[in-house]
Write a structure and sequence with these properties.
Rossmann fold; 2 domains; seven-stranded mixed beta sheet; about 30% helix; EC 2.1.1.-; membrane; methyltransferase
Amino acid sequence: MKHKDGKPVSHPDKNSRAVPMAIMFFVLCGFSFYLGGIFCSEKDKIEAKDVAKVVSSPKESSIAPLQIKSTAFPECSSDYQDYTPCTDPKRWKKYGNHRLTFMERHCPPVFERKECLIPPPDGYKPPIKWPKSRDQCWYRNVPYDWINKQKSNQNWLRKEGDKFLFPGGGTMFPRGVGAYVDLMQDLIPEMKDGTIRTAIDTGCGVASWGGDLLDRGILTVSLAPRDNHEAQVQFALERGIPAILGIISTQRLPFPSNAFDMAHCSRCLIPWTEFGGIYLLEVHRILRPGGFWVLSGPPVNYENRWRGWNTTVEEQKSDYEKLQELLTSMCFKLYDKKDDIAVWQKASDNSCYSKLANTDAYPPKCDDSLEPDSAWYTPIRPCVVVPSPKIKKSVMESIPKWPERLHATPERISDIPGGSASAFKHDDSKWKIRAKHYKKLLPALGSDKMRNIMDMNTVYGGFAAAVIDDPLWVMNVVSSYAANTLPVVFDRGLIGTFHDWCEAFSTYPRTYDLLHLDGLFTAESHRCEMKYVLLEMDRILRPTGYAMIRESSYFVDAISTIAKGMRWSCRKEDTEYGVEKEKILICQKKLWYSSKSSR
């Protein structure tokens, strides 16, 4: 037997055949790799160069700015005008009903992401300015008749002509939210003297409670799921009241532990004593030591109210006793009670929690396996998160009162790598200078033209603190992948949330007037594709609203190119320091209507 080249070969065995086959395999692999390189070199020339630039430190001034191809994004269909990607009712059937988990965040996979622009409703126009917006909004901006028909008898809202009016009523405050809060202040004097500054309203309706508290110096996060009441959160934000989509279910809320000074539920229909009291355990976690939990509605005042609740007085009495027992086991004490309102206070020190060490205690104390501030897709555990004994100046009775606490160095800054009193003071001073410069570049900032502001990647809430005297509020967002600085934000008397910008934010379209970024793409572009972050910004930005993008010069031109494809107009400005390595891109979203509009 001869080889193909005519040379004699010895009798082949399995090993001898393997050698030429292995050589052939490597030759073919190398040849295919070569062909692939030829094929891709032209198609992905720009992308390949861009990757090389990113790898070789884009911050260096010698590196040319990132350049990408211009793309004009198409319009989404009108069916998507209220699209909330991670709380989309069209996807609810894929998830279970247990504890309403289908209403939690469930973001679509990458291959289902929309690459189109969300159209406004027919007849949309710029929102009514604050403070008039608290009492009225344009019907065409949130055209929901269902909630009007179902809740008009409770004075949630009322349609008149081309507007929705908000009389300030609610299921538990038929005489108006003002009288309701007046009674609450009588029960909780700390609401009057600056002790209580931040609050969360679970099951917020149209956020009338949070809206009323703004005049009383209390900043509230109104929380509600996307449910059959339709657009509770959208109504709140259209009115200019802070709100976010969310539900207490199986996952922790996106807030750190010991954050809020007060939590409130007004007939929010949360079954507090079911599932071992797990919903109350989450309220306990996010409530500051010494903070207050306020409940109105069943089973409070059951003696006089039970007939209207389709139940018996015995059942309601039993429910109230179970609730009181559960709260006591979590180290809450009944603070005061009158008519339909009951107030409990979380323990200010840890002496009460020693009883949780007993083996038969329920709920038990959480062990150290889960960080108390871990709150991004973190399951709620059936145990009590005991505040760290290191927290002494952050309890209600020790933290400075508002507004002094805004600029006082928070105790928990020492938990942050590199955090210190001097770093905090430097950041505070820096943002005062920056905000002054921003207002020169964008005179609308600080005027009645801007109400709902988001700082998309804050550190200590410096930007929000610098504009605190303006007629606006700021949602401070801390990346779930960044250092945990959100407790410092709350300790200052500001509000915020954890978020991952590789996903959609928990809000409706057209809900913010200004989005502010400070080096977001420098920090996150290795994880999150720039195009999708900007498309998400377009979704939540109001028409005629602005994006103020402070970014490395390496990214600015590429951002501007994508923004142009979203119908934004942008201009590049110098920072307050006038350096070349960093620029400010100011973009305005255009008001446009769907090409299929029936206007």
